[in-house]
Amino acid sequence: MIRTVPALVLVGVALTACASCAGQAAPRPVPAVGSAGFPPSAAEARAQLARLRVAWGEQWQTYERVRFGRTWSDDTDAPGGRNGCDTRDDVQRRDLVELRTGDRNACVVLSGVLDDPYTGKRLPYAYRRASQIQTDHVVALAAAWRAGAWAWTDERRLAYANDLDVLLATDKQTNHDKSAKTPDRWKPPRREYWCEYGRRWTGIKAKYGLTVSPPEKRAVEELLGTCG
Questions:
Q1: Do residues 92 and 131 touch, judged by C-beta distance below 8 A?
Q2: What's the whole-number mean pLDDT along residues 104-132?
Q3: What residues pair up with 54 in beta bridges, in sequence order?
Q4: b/e string for 93-106 if b means 16 or more Cβ within 10 A?
Q5: How far apart are CA 220 and CA 56, in angstroms?
Q6: Angle 152-65-218 (CA atoms, 0-180°, nearest 5)?
Q7: Measured between alpha carbons, how far is 225 from 194 in angstroms, rounded to an integer?
Q8: Taking all residues of the chain, what is their mean pLDDT, rounded to a whole number?
């Protein structure tokens, strides 16, 4: 026996299916945030710093950027991973203010302003236009390599390179000046950020079990000494 389906039912099915048709806005992405409780408080950071293993850097001559992955990747279990957005977009969505994101792809930042933590500059951003904003690994990849990442798996290095706890949107030139320097060789020009920079630096090193050199540890103690 052949049963017929009422036309109104067919229309209802078509309308339901069309909810995912091309032309509809993509779902809103998961908010771009880091780990709960990161960066650590000043007191916690001091305790973490005291527990870090003090050692001189190793394997500096074997560092290659590609060992941390070639591009930004969402395919990690690090904070910000597997949320459907490119890591760089995650950083911009978290760190920029006056934010405007795409209608069809809310991962993409169309415009915004960065209050640069390192210098205090206000830096505008517009999609596909030259920008003075870059994404900085607070503990640079080369610095992490020397402090123990040389012994990690490729998967762990990829996670580190895309971990929102490790990343900040910053002024391009200042990021270049910082390069892979540790705090005994470079500190943010804006002294008001020294406390948070020390907290972030220590939190990253503790999270990933990285070592600190003797002069680096003294410099981080100076940074944390500026905390209230």
A1: no
A2: 97
A3: 212
A4: bbbbeeeebeeeeb
A5: 15
A6: 70
A7: 9
A8: 89
Give the CA count within 13 Å in the CB-facing half-sphere of 109: 27
CB atoms closer than 10 angstroms to residue 221: 15
Sheet holding 97-101, edge to edge: 97-101, 109-115, 122-126
Q: Give domain limits for the chain.
A: 36-224
**What would the pLDDT profile of 172-213 be if each residue is shown by its tens digit?**
999 999 999 999 999 999 999 999 999 999 999 999 999 999
Model pTM score: 0.86
Tokens in use for 126?
Answer: 């517009």
Region 13-28 average pLDDT:
43
Place of tokens 């048709």: 21
What's the pLDDT band for 49 if we cut at 50, 70, 90? very high
53-78 burial, b for 16+ CB within 10 Å, e for fewer? eeeebeeeeebeeebbbeebbbebeb
pLDDT score recorded for residue 210: 98
Contact, 147 vs 132, CB < 8 A? Answer: no
Q: What are phi and psi of 143, to 5 degrees?
A: -70, -40
Question: CA dihedral in degrees (220, 221, 227, 228; nearest 10)?
Answer: 180
φ and ψ of 108, to 5 deg: -80, 125
Q: Which pLDDT belongs to residue 33?
A: 73
Rounded Cα distance between 228 and 95, Å, is 24
Q: What SS3 state is found at 59?
A: coil
